[in-house]
Write a structure and sequence with these properties.
- The protein folds into two domains: about 35 residues; about 70 residues, Nucleotidyltransferase, domain 5.
- A five-stranded mixed β-sheet has the order 3-2-1-4-5, with helices on one face.
- It contains four helices and five strands.
- It starts with a helix and ends with a strand.
- Helix 3 packs across helix 4.
- The radius of gyration is 28 Å and the shape is elongated.
- It has about 140 residues and is of the alpha/beta class.
- Keywords: Cell membrane, Membrane, Protein transport, Transmembrane, Transmembrane helix, Transport.
- It is found in: Cell membrane.
- Its main location: membrane.
């Protein structure tokens, strides 16, 4: 065996393999970063046609979204709930995050009586920050 043959085989072995470990580490770390920093949006469960308002403000720390459709059906966490059970559900959800607020998404065609009943139930549950959502 000549020296030329030894040098040739050793360079061929090194060049034929590509180490993917550093690339996989970077991809895995990026995946973890995006999962941890992702902003999860809570949905009320139905699409409502919200009224417009000239005095709207952005609310932070929204914990509970309540939607009221044109048929005066109340939806919390993508479930239809009865008007009488709104207070107990809000109390339970508010206990999980005491700094959170309640935002009510009422349709334009919904009944004012239903909206005020939901607001009263949320306030009776101990939530101070109750807001009514409007169109952007």
């Amino acid at each position: 065996m000549r020296i030329y043959d030894l040098v040739k085989t050793s360079t061929e072995e090194n060049s034929s393999e590509i180490d993917l470990t550093p690339m996989l580490d970077v991809v895995f770390i990026m995946l973890i970063f995006f999962i941890v920093t992702a902003s999860f949006i809570k949905e009320a469960g139905i699409e409502v046609n919200r009224p417009e308002a000239s005095t709207q403000e952005q609310v932070e720390n929204v914990n509970i979204l309540i939607a009221i459709n044109p048929n005066n059906e109340i939806w919390i966490d993508q479930r239809r709930v009865d008007k009488r059970s709104v207070r107990s559900l809000v109390e339970r959800m508010h206990a999980e995050n005491p700094k959170g607020a309640v935002v009510i998404q009422a349709d334009k065609a919904s009944n004012t009586e239903t909206v005020t009943s939901v607001i009263d139930s949320a306030r009776a549950a101990g939530v101070v920050d109750v807001s009514l959502a409007t169109a952007d």
